[in-house]
Each structure stands twice: as structure tokens, then as C-alpha cells.
Amino acid sequence: MDASANDGPIAPDGTPWWELTVQPGTRNKTFGQERRLAAWLWFNKEIGDIFTMNELRDALGSDIVGKSEHLNRRLRTLRSVGWIIPSYKDDGSLSSDEYRLQEKGARYWLDEDRQAHKRFAPSARVRRDVIERDGGRCVVCGTAARESYPGEPDSKARLTIGHRVPQERLRSRGAADNIDNWRTECARCNEPVRAEVPDPQQYDEVLAQVRRLNRVNKQTLLSWLQRAERTRSELDRVYDLARILTHKEQEDLIGYLKTSTGGSS
Ligand SMILES: [Zn+2]
How many Å lie between the centroid of ligand 1 and the Cα of residue 157? Predict the structure, then answer.
């Protein structure tokens, strides 16, 4: 697409970019919701303006923002291509349904994102090294590739790598990207579905469970939450090593453990 010919708010077919559902020049290729969102913000909001989820819903229809987690995913995509859009979590002066447009990034609806992505896209080599360094596990929840999540035997974790320091902050510092800024994350932790609006009942339930933990577990949980990473115990590390032994070696190990614990289960 020739971006310079499409600088305005109106797409080649005469429709505002944010109202498009099909990509210009294609028969039925969907015009992504992130593109519509980016175009609407670009042409309807000034730098420093505040917008709310309801406002987006009125402007773009309920399917584009749907639940708050859908909107959060879309905003995350924009943030990954240079948009700076703090929410109340980043900025205490905003209320829980408000966002501030602090910086406009790539013109996502014009495919400018490809350039922006390229700048921070890790090579296959970096990806491999990061995952190897982190022991082949998500550093946030501890799940390994293809392992199922607790209580969900049919799930299979997929590993990816994510930034420790958000790309937007790295950019604003003009810092170079390097392997230390990447960490292994599973797809779920990389894209967390987090409640955007406080739910006192849910908080009370979590707090009740936290209260039942002993002191050592409370300290461990505290450090995990503060670092947004879980550490792995010696037992976890031995389990990781044992898991990659051959079938025969595992049988031998099971035999040894049965004998040395005096148990048969
Ligand atoms: Zn995870």
C-alpha cells in the first residue's frame, strides 16, 4: 500500500478507515480491529486526550472492544508498535475506565507496523538462547513447552519470549535491545487476561487463600509477585532434568525412588 497517498482519514473507497471491515483492494480480507482502533484514535484524538471504553464502543461498535480484555489485547498490539497509551494502572490520575493517548505510534492501518515490529523483533537465535537460558520454561508461571496447565489436562503451553522492560519504555530511553531484556513466557502469561475493573469479591477470595498460606509460602508469593516471576525450587529443577531422561532411565529412576522411599505408589 502506498502510504503517502493515504494520509487522510478517508480510505480509497471513500469510507473512514475506522469504519472499514474489508481491506481495501481485497474482496473479503478482514480489516483488523486494531487497524480500525488505531485509525480512529489517530484522527479523532489529540495527544494528551483521554478516552474511555464506552467512547470507543460508541464510535466503533461493541464487537471491537467487547469485553475489557479484548480492548486490552488491541491496545497492547498498538503499544507494541510505538503507541503510548497509559491506563489507570500506569497513571494514578486516570480512573479505571480511562486511557490517555500519550503518543501516537505506527499508522497500523497503513501497514506501517511492519517497520516498527522489525526494529525489536528478536532473531531465531536470540529466541533459542533466551528459552535455553530460562530452562525451557515460562519464567512467570513455570510451565514448560507442551506441558499442560494445572487442572487443564487438554491444554498445551506454547513458549514465546517477551520483554522485561516494555518496548515503549526502551524506545523512550533510546536504549538498545539485548538478550538480557528478553525472558521466556508462555503464550498465556505473555497475553494475560487480567481483570481491568476491580472485583472486591474476587479480591476477598484470593486474600482468604493467601491468608491460609504459612509464613514461608507467603514470603515466596511476595517475591514472585514483586518480580512478576516465579522461582523454581531445587525439586523443580531436578524434575526438569529427570523429565528429559530416556524412558528407560526414567523407569530406573522410578525404581530407585520407590526403593529409597519405601513406597510403591
Ligand atoms: Zn506462563
Answer: 8
195, part of any domain: no
**The domain boundary residue, chosen from 82, 114, 146:** 114
How remote is the C-alpha of 80 from its chain's centroid? 10
Report how far ligand 1's centroid is from the alpha carbon of 141 (Å).
4
112-125 confidence digits (pLDDT tens): 665 554 455 677 88
| 133: amino acid identity, one letter | R
What domain count does the chain have? Answer: 3
In the reported structure, the alpha carbon of residue 81 is separated from the centroid of ligand 1 by a whole-number distance in angstroms of 23
What range does the domain containing 186 cover?
Answer: 122-190
Give mean pLDDT, residues 142-168: 83
Ion ligand 1 nearby residues (CB, 5 A): 138, 140-141, 186, 189
Kindly state the average pLDDT of the residues 50-76. Answer: 83
Residue 108 confidence (pLDDT): 82
The residue written with cell numbers 520407590 in the block is: 258
Both 101 and 11 in one domain: the answer is yes
Please give the Cα distance from 169 to 165 (Å, whole number).
Answer: 7
